[in-house]
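Standup notes
- DV: blocked on the single-chain target, sequence here:
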Amino acid sequence: MGLELATTGATTNLEDLEGELLKFVDRFGMPAPEYRRLYGALYDSPSFGPEQVQQLEREFRELREKYREHRMDELRRTRKVHAKDPAVAESILSGLLTGDRVLAKIDDVLRVCDAAIASRASVVSESD
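- DV (later): unblocked, structure below
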């Protein structure tokens, strides 16, 4: 699919992660109405006004928090991270999350939303 989100001064392409992100939204039981609207209308190139951008940004912040927590739990198990000091465990797990494609893409979407909010602009989408 390759959905692109853009606003004044910022753009990102979801690089075919739209469906994967929706699976996490569903897994975490998130309502995420603006993301669902975006996903449901991929080929209609929906746009988001300033209020909708703020809601989309909240949805992606929540998704980022839940996804990061999910991945940290997964990495604790699979990489056997058993540090007694929580700060040490956090440091190890954060290092392991570096380069996580999904987390990086969520951060890119947040960057676009933040730019739109700062300039009171809309976010437009386009799918190829």
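- Follow-up: The chain has one domain: 4-126.
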